[in-house]
Amino acid sequence: MSELPATPALAAALLRLRVAVDAPQHSGIAAPLDYLSERPLAPGTLLQVPLGKRELLAIVWDPAQEGDQGQVLPAEQLRQVGPALDALPPLNEAWRRLLEFAAGYYQRSIGELALSVLPPQLRELDGKQLQGRLKKLAKLRTEADASAIEASAVPELSVAQAEALQRIDTLMQTDAAPPPLLLYGVTGSGKTEVYLRAAEHALAQGRQVLVLVPEINLTPQLEARFAERFAGRHIVSLHSGLTPAQRLRHWLAAHLGEADLVLGTRLAVFASMPRLGLIAVDEEHDPSYKQQDGARYSARDLAVYRARLERVPVILGSATPSLESWQHANAGRYQRLALPARIGGGAMPRVRLFDMNSLPRNKGVTTAISAPLLHALRQRVERGEQSLVFLNRRGYAPVLHCGECNWKSDCPNCSAWRVFHKEDRTLRCHHCGVAERVPRACPSCGNLDIAPLGRGTERLEEQLAEMLQGVLRPDGGPARVARIDADSTKLKGSLESQLGAVHAGEVDVLVGTQMVTKGHDFRRITLVAAVNPDAALFSSDFRAPERLFSLLMQAAGRAGRDAAQAAQSEMWVQTWHPQHALYQALLAHDFERFAASQLAERESAGLPPFAHLALLRAEARTPEVAEAFLKAAAEAAAGLSTAAQLLVYPPVPMSMARVANVERMQMLLESASRPALQALLRAWLPELQQLKREHRGLLRWAIDVDPLAI
DNA sequence: AGCACGCCGACT
DNA sequence: GTCGGCGTGCTC
């Protein structure tokens, strides 16, 4: 099957097919390849093809168009396709257009992207095995129908919710592509209810609904909420935490049109859904929607593109929208729907800024918890209420330090400190993973007196337990402090069990990283404290303030969701810069003011959303090699046609310049015109492939379109 | 990416 | 003599 056709006459008798194969970008195979087939195969059909010495899973792509460039090989030089998986319906036109756009926009080959978003297990199945899976799936389906349960009661809508829904309904009726909807409402204002109702309407019209969430952690609870409302409907999840068999099963259910609702993380934006009728992107501002390796796509942006392509409504929901989406709404390209109040009359917690400058400075060591905050924590424990202390840094201390010779626990492989983890007495690098037992004495001078510098959640938990010793709950028991972060939840199911303990009231003071600020609904928390958030104010990352504001708003949203307690709930922020505009806006819960000031800064600095960015990154054993490659790349770019509309900055080391002994440099490209930037990247890519060959010692290069950080 | 081919050092 | 080191280059 995979041999070359024996004669030119035979070759001429076969059909020519374009096939997208899974070849990585640096292979130089960007476009689909030509093969021969004895019978016609519809575009979107999965099949095996020979490539070199291998047999790969690939996808029949659309025939070449008139204007397509690239040389056409004579039929005698083409190989024949292998067996097709034609038990599976072909991936439809809309899906192919989505992939074609995404591959082009993020500068990857179609096949590479397409195969990376299909369930990995498809690669291992032949036609017969696939038929078996499909049969099993059909059987499961009939069993599920028999066990339908009663749907839960539907709550009444607030005026704002009803109005939002009315607008969505109108958009669902129209035939043209509706504008994206920006659903803007604080935590607890009932955004999820709007998704549920909009989904209900789409389902009633016989359509499928796609709901995206930023993190795997958030899928189970959202799934539970949808399952409760839509009993009897077929709901599946799609994320990388599924077993290969589950992922295939769920994907097939979506692709065959059997699943009514698909809930998932960013990769679910590529789910094949033949009856798609609505897309919702929850917490649309969340950075997790941007893929950080391989094809660096933004699932939120692709959701918007997909909705336009399929002429279905897309709802972007957030209490703190991304400045990109906010600006689109300002310009009238997105329709803004505001949910101004919390459901049930609950108020947002009162924000209090605690000025750290007012503390006596002569102690030399600053305390993590100021006396007034400690007092507030004490009071909550004594009243039987819960508190959340938020510190976005895990481990015991970020660095270990020798007071004698000034040694610090740097990582031998990275330009970063190794973090002191007291629990297992290790020094661990959070970037390359290298771990080592904590030395007894300074490795440099032998001094025994080495001390942790700064603090992470582990140390904060320890200090809080100490500070709250002797404080009693109303039932006479001692105060209980617990911690939730990436270290405490490494084991499967441990996040759920720890959250369960908090919900059950078995914890009085919860210490956590941003992990606990996302989505989890803690009914009894009346105090949220951010202990040391200032670092982001002075970060070189232009999006750091936006992220901090959203994180603090989200953390504040953890408090007072129970209306009975809302009146007395508070958010404390300990800061050295209480006058900073970010904190002043937070004080007033005023996202709009914050967004306006940030947008003004971005505009004057020529940053997104007023300019479009792309990064070229290079990795090598030495910074010189990486830099030389980038400089050559800049020269090549200058010679290309759209270069005039483009600004190419000099190469600089990445903020984490060395990871695992690899030196990393990057170069920023900026343009006011997205098409000009896109055109340049397209023309640049072949030149970069050539340059890679000329620059010995260059390990890898990559393009990041619309990077999150520069 | 795989998987060839290719051209130089220490082993049965 | 040849086993294998990983540099270089190709895959319709």
TrEMBL record:
Binds 2 zinc ions per subunit. It is an enzyme of class 5 (isomerase). The keyword DNA-binding applies. Component of the replication restart primosome. It comes from the Bacteria. Its EC number is 5.6.2.4. Initiates the restart of stalled replication forks, which reloads the replicative helicase on sites other than the origin of replication. Recognizes and binds to abandoned replication forks and remodels them to uncover a helicase loading site. Promotes assembly of the primosome at these replication forks. Zn(2+) 2 binds at residues 411, 414, 429, 432. The keyword Cell division does not apply. One of its GO terms (molecular function) is hydrolase activity. It catalyses: Couples ATP hydrolysis with the unwinding of duplex DNA by translocating in the 3'-5' direction; ATP + H2O = ADP + phosphate + H(+). It holds the Pfam family DEAD. Zn(2+) 1 binds at residues 402, 405, 442, 445. Belongs to the helicase family. PriA subfamily. Its cofactor is Zn(2+). PANTHER family: PRIMOSOMAL PROTEIN N. Keywords: ATP-binding, DNA replication, DNA-binding, Helicase, Hydrolase, Isomerase, Metal-binding, Nucleotide-binding, Primosome, Zinc. Residues 172-339 form the Helicase ATP-binding domain. This is Replication restart protein PriA.
